[in-house]
Amino acid sequence: MATSRKKDLFLQFIKVFITCFCLFANSNKVSCVGTDRTEHKMYIELATQSACFRNFNATHQVGCTSSENGNVGTVHYIQSIKDMEWVLNSGPHSPYVVVLKAANFTRDTVITLAQSSRVNGIMVINVHNSTHNPLPSDGFSSVDQCPNDRFGLYADDTNYNKCQKQIWNKVGTSLRFVDLKIPVFALSDIKDVDAVLNKCYFPFNNPINDTARDYPLCSAEVKARMDGAVNSVVCMRRTLRTTLSLSGPQQYCDPMGDFNVITFMQKIPSSSSRQASSVIMVATKLDSVAMFQNEYNAADTTVVGVVTLLAAAQALWKQKEELIQPHAKDIVFAFFQGETFDYIGSSRAVYDIQKGIFPQEYSSEDKNSVSKLNLTHIDQFVELNQVGLRDNSSLWAHVDPISQPNVEKKIEDMTKFIKTFGEQLNISIKSAASKLPLPPASAQRFLMARKDLPVVVLTDHEAEFTNKYYNSRFDTADKLGGFDYPEDANDTVKYNYITKQALLIANLSSTLARYLYNASTGKIPTAAVLPNLTADPLMVTRLLYCFLISPNCELFYESVDSDNAQSLKDAKQPFPFYVSVTSHTNEVTQLVYSLMARFTGTLIDSNKNDCKQDGNYKLFSFTWMQGALKNNSNDRQGWCYKAIVHYTKAVSPAFEIDEYDLTSGDYSSWTEARWGSKAIGIRLFLMPSPEFQASILAVGILMLILSLVIVYICQKNSSAIFSVHSVRTSRSYSPMT
Amino acid sequence: MTLMEFFGCTFIAFGPPIALFIFTIAKDPMRVIVLIASSFFWLIALLISSILWFAVVPLRETLAFGLVFSVLFQELFRFLFYKIMRLANEGLIKVSQQSDNSNITPRDFANTHIMAYVSGLGFGLMSGAFSLINVLADLWGPGSIGIHGDSKYFFWSSSYLTLCFILLHTMWGVIFFAGMDRKCYFYVAYVVATHMLVSCLTLLNQLSSSTDSAIYLGPLIPAYIILVVSGIFAFYTAGGSLANIKNCVTCRKRRYQIE
Question: Which of residues 147-206 of B touch A (CB under 8 A)?
Fold first, then answer.
């Protein structure tokens, strides 16, 4: 490591030095004026940073890596079976770097290629159109067929484990959880695809009549160098090891995690305690995953659930006065992060609840925090999973078959009311078959801790997922459907246009709001309160637009503080839903937090510096955001919201408990490898034939030896060769002496 | 993978100069000092040319402008180096004196061509290094040139041209110093003119940079013709002759008989 850095530094030094004087490279045919370097003549650097990278759990490493300087191979574009055969067996110019269409990027193909010693890297074209690069028609999911099974409720249950009743995610490839050992990239920029195919593969490599082309061949250097290796246990041990190094400790991996966003309806300070069964918990997950960095679309997987919950909160808080009465039950909105990686967020929440530090840490004299929550306080748990792609236009209520007999009455009531309120808004909600276990859901972690918790999970599927692109880069708004924007609508029009999907989601939010109102107060909403308990379809459509289509939207600009406004401006694509590592708070988490503060808080008169918690008074949070534009001005008003919205840590307890054995399998053990700042990238270049290279070397060596011999002979005979006239001594000397 | 190209090009361009250095310079400290001093003078010429190039903003993109002035500055500094060598001559002789007998001039200074040759090689080595090292640094990666349609002979051509320039500078050093010593300003004019000519020839390479054939090596031919001519010129200037070579080749014994 150190030596390579020195080498880099040295080369860098040479480059800087030389660029300054570059002009005087008279012999350099490449115009050296400006910053044009020989390197630019030799390489095409692709823009893509969408690499598959490496994660670890307690026992395995998964994902991709390359050698330190990148893997090099001849580019070959797989168009048919013949090309596979070419790459794997017959092609004469191995190793290859393979270019795949989306439809060919299947588990079998990728694993076959990755295992072949003749393949050094994979690029998959991620620019789609129906004729040239259609989506995989059978679906594609980067995660397991039975997601999170080993850390869920049924891990040790012989009747239900391993999805034996129902394989939820039949198209699951587990490719995200395979150790591929070669670098794999997505090419999402049309320019990159054009460079690979039209400047590299077709002009130089495409075999003519099944005969390989002659050198020079177009090759690629595919680099995605990961620092960590083996598994979380080894990697964390290496990271935490005390080292004597001037450049600080070398880090190899970081625990994955972020923050959960928890919102309370009632302000119950820690001086008063909660009653049993006095809290209704509504939850959804906040993250997703896909194969490649930056390519995390999560329309159905995550976004619809989040948006439904946000809109329901907004509606419900309009009826706040009734809901904060002492006899009403408290309502908690929970957004759990890191659920895709073995329930990081929910398992941490349960862990904190059991330790009595949820949602905040308490000191002994603490009277002004949020009253602590324990599991017996929870009256019921409603969770929203994927709710966008409805199976026969209905939603399904799933319950846990094991605990159901204990709480049959309660669950029956819950589903009955949810269905009733749904019907009023033309949403059909059905009960899933009773033999089915719960689908992957945060509620499972709560059920593991308390067996008699009444849980209902709402999803858009009864049996297998209706979403064929669950946790994959294809899970986009247009796959979700119902985004019926008028043709050639610009961004502003789209932002304000109420789509069909938005109406459906808004109705679901209203259903949820009315149900929660009923569950909390025990009252059937009267005609007078119904308008309040109706979600705003305009807000829903805006939320969907901002999360799925472009984060450059007014709603987000209003909701961030000025420090984050710039990163919002720079965002080219929807914010990533990947949970990432603990050291970095996700944009999505921050936005959900701000939006919840807006929807559930009160606007107070304050300025930016005063908008914060007052000493020990931790019950409320104060959130500063830019606010709406002032009239006729580019300045923003600046809003300070006071709300009971709190971040709670979503870091697996595995990394908090002293001496915890990561391999025990109780808690998520996922970590993410680190990589250097220049460790990811692809360059294309021409590879000259070995003969050509060898000839240069041979000529070079020949010239060196020849000149050594000639100069030696000349030097020996110099006095004879040069007869000097202007001698002052009797002996003659020559330049060669 | 193209480490082979890297070393090939390095040996082509710097093999002969290294041989010259090993056998004719390295053993004598005074020559090493003069070599480094002359390299330093070339660097100053480069610095001044750079400043000029940097200052004249509108012509920054015009390669020919910088090139012409660079050649002029290099020759100016060759002249300055000559002057300094002559001014320092007495002192250098004193320093090099190995015996107590001050009547014997050390051989390096007795023959004025030796230091001319050394300073020429110093100029050449430094200019060669600057010509080629940026190209070589990029060769370190896995790729070679050509993906944008450039000729694959780029590195051949660069190395041979660099070699040509190193050797030319050596010849020019000998001719220039002799010209100044003998007040034969035709010699000096020849050096400036050929330097300018060969440098301008390299501009032609830009025109043919997309032909992927041996034609690309074409511009090397005039450069090497000038090298051969200058070589013969320098050879005779330094006191060589065909007869001497014949003597040398035919029989070692006879040489001593003549003496």
Answer: 147-148, 150, 152, 154-159, 161-162, 165, 174, 199, 202, 205-206
Produce one character per residue of A163-177: b if its CB has 16 or more CB atoms within 10 Å, e if not: bebbbbbbbbbbbbb
For chain A, give every domain's residue range. 2-40+700-721, 43-136+171-249+679-687, 256-472+577-651
Q: Which fold has domain A256-472+577-651?
A: Aminopeptidase (3.40.630)
The counts of H helices and E strands in chain A are 20, 22
CA angle A208, A209, A210 (to 5 degrees): 90
pLDDT at A238: 86
Q: What is the pLDDT of residue B259?
A: 41
B143 part of contact set with chain A, CB < 8 Å:
yes
The Cα A447–Cα A440 span in angstroms is 12
ipTM of the complex model: 0.89
Peptide bond into B222 cis (omega under 30): no
Residue B47: count of CB within 10 angstroms of its CB: 13
Which tokens in the block code for residue A350?
């349960």
Confidence of residue A10 (pLDDT cuts 50, 70, 90): very low
Residue A727 pLDDT greater than 60, yes or no: no
**CB contact (8 A) between residue B111 and residue A701:** no
The pLDDT of A528-537, averaged and rounded, is 93
DSSP A422-442: HHHTT-EEEEPPTT--PPS-T
Of B22, B145, B205, the CB nearest to A41: B145
Backbone angles phi, psi at A709, to 5 degrees: -65, -50
pTM: predicted TM-score of the whole model, two decimal places: 0.84
DSSP A203: I
Query: Are the C-beta atoms of A673 and A293 separated by less than 8 Å?
Result: no
Q: Cβ of B107 and A737 within 8 Å?
A: yes
Q: Which residues pair with B123 in a beta bridge?
A: none
Q: Which residue from B76, B75, B240 is spatially nearest to B172, judged by alpha carbons?
A: B75
When CB atoms are compared, the residue of A21, A43, A721 closest to B143 is A43
Condensed to tens digits (0 to 9), the pLDDT of residues A649-689 reads 999 999 999 889 988 889 999 999 999 888 999 999 998 88
* Residue whose structure tokens are 């397991």: A144
* Residues of A (50-109) whose Cβ lies below 8 Å from B: 69-70, 72
Is residue A632 very low, low, confident or very high in pLDDT (cuts 50, 70, 90)?
A: confident
Q: Inspect the interface and report whether the beta carbons of B2 and A688 lie closer than 8 Å.
A: yes
pLDDT score, position A5:
46
**Residue among A699, A717, A723 minimizing CB distance to B239:** A723
Which burial class, exposed, middle or buried, applies to A286 when counting CB atoms under 10 A from its CB (0-12, 13-18, 19+)? Answer: buried
Is A200 in contact with B147 (Cβ distance < 8 A)? yes
Contact of A9 with chain B, judged by CB distance below 8 Å, is answered with no
CB A621 within 8 A of CB A645: yes
User: Which residues 558-587 of A have a C-beta within 8 angstroms of B?
Assistant: none
pLDDT (tens digit per residue) in A245-256: 776 667 889 999
Radius of gyration (Cα) for chain B, nearest Å? Answer: 20
**A16 Cβ under 8 Å from any chain B Cβ:** no
Alpha-carbon distances of A403 from A373, A449, A450, rounded to whole Å: 22, 12, 9
Chain B residues whose CB is inside 8 A of the A13 CB are none
Q: Say what percent of chain A tops pLDDT 90.
A: 63
Quick one: how far is CA A219 from the chain centroid? 30
Which chain B residues contact residue A33 at CB under 8 A? 60-63, 66
Enter the DSSP assignment of A133.
B
Closest Cα partner for A254 from A542, A533, A10, A54? A54
Q: Give the strand pairing for A639-643 and A602-604.
A: antiparallel
